[in-house]
Amino acid sequence: MQKRREVAAPSLTVDGGGLLFGETPLSPAMAPQARATARGIVEAYNIMGYNAVGVGRYDLAGGVDFLREMAAASKFSWLSANLVDRADRKPLFAAKLFKKAGGITVGITGLTGPGGPPSDRSLLLPWQEALPPVVAELKKKADFIVLLADLDRAQIDKIAAALPAVNLIIQAGGNAGDLAPVLSHQTLVCSTAKQGKSLGVLSLDWQGRPNWGQSPEELLLDRKRALDQIEWQLRRAPSSPELRQEKKRLAAEVATLEASDSRSSSFKNDFLAMETSLPDDLQVAAVVGDIRQQIQRLGKQASHRPVANPRPKEKEADYVGWQACGRCHLKETANWQRTRHAGSYRTLAAKQQQFNLNCLPCHVTGTEEETSAALALPEGMLAVGCEVCHGPGGEHVRRAGKVPLSRRPLVDTCLRCHTPEQDDHFDFTRDLKRAAHPEE
Amino acid sequence: MNRMRPLLILLFLFPLLSGTAMAGKGKFVVFYSNDVHGETEPCG
User: Fold this and answer.
1) Domain containing residue A53
2) Which chain B residues touch A203 with a CB distance below 8 Å?
3) Best of A6, A14, A26, A57 to disrupt the B interface by mutation (most B CBs within 10 Å)?
4) Collapsing DSSP states into helix, strand and coil, what is residue A191?
5) What is the complex's ipTM, to 2 decimals?
6) Is pLDDT of A160 > 90?
7) Three-class SS of residue A72?
8) For the whole model, what pTM was predicted?
9) What is the CATH number of the domain that holds A106?
10) Residue closest to A172 by CA, chosen among A63, A80, A242
């Protein structure tokens, strides 16, 4: 927000899609929390002054009607050229938007990707059918066309090849990290890290044609620096004919660049890390705080209700909690208690997130699914305990250790939570040593 | 004149067909994000 206020140039703010919900299907237990979060995100985007958001496949996780309710509450446009009503094949959301940015008219459209939740209401048209007529309409008025596309890179490249009038594609659903802008044919393709970790800032000097090149200002600066270096060397070796020749050449190049009026379109891109735990805008911080309180309230209510789908008794008995392990494995338990795994639930509670079903499964033992069962675990499960790495210990305890447990966790066990989005520095070999018991 | 008509039509239509010849110029900034996935703050 602060950076956006600092930018003096005209600007627009867009999102490629995949805004409201995560990639996993919305379970009945998760739905109230996820919908409350989605409402809060729309409110925050209203405050942040977004202009347009692409309808991503996962934005439909709450249903078409819920997303239309969100669109009605949005001060920005939800765009999809290919998501249509199954009955009349008319777009369910706006297909295009024109926005002035300085002297430029920017046309914006969106594409929804395949693989979203099935719906009786909506139909997804292939972009080959839906996009060309919308781009043709945008071309009539727009100087620059932006596509918000929830599609993989192969499809993006095909669009760039087929529709060169599309100048910029903001890609959703593509990669885990920030992707520096790349040119696909004549189209710039950009995307940021998932989960709102950063905001891309693309400064464009648009010369009316996609003849992308180095920024003339940067090129001039580069040549001036080179000229300064030559002049410095000439002071030490004033009679060098090579240096004099080079100075003459560079001076002429600088003069040409300074006088030049024929310029390439150019861009410069930065990624701003978004510190979501401390939003710099008081209004957005208030929205985030309100979402957290709603999740706490919903979670507390759910934790007092009978679990809708309780785990089978035999599976429930499999987990015994870390205290049961500690009765025999004293040293290992003492060692574990010094690890961050032991305090994983406490860190949630400290942030008032202990009822957040998005967070809980990776901070407790005995639940691998985001169900309300996670809200009603006994105290011994409220940590990433022994059984997360070694497997359920019920049979091992009942038969006094005669049923062996896994001594070493598999990499997949750790990767369930240490995902690139949650822990981009995770290294299985290195980090296992930190979590392992000294004698292992 | 009749023989020149196709050429005149082509000259008139060219900017529309090329899609870029009439495009305006200017500097602007696009702030962008994607795949927020319902995340509002880190878990812990």
Assistant:
1) 2-212+264-282
2) 27, 29
3) A14
4) strand
5) 0.78
6) yes
7) helix
8) 0.76
9) 3.60.21.10
10) A80
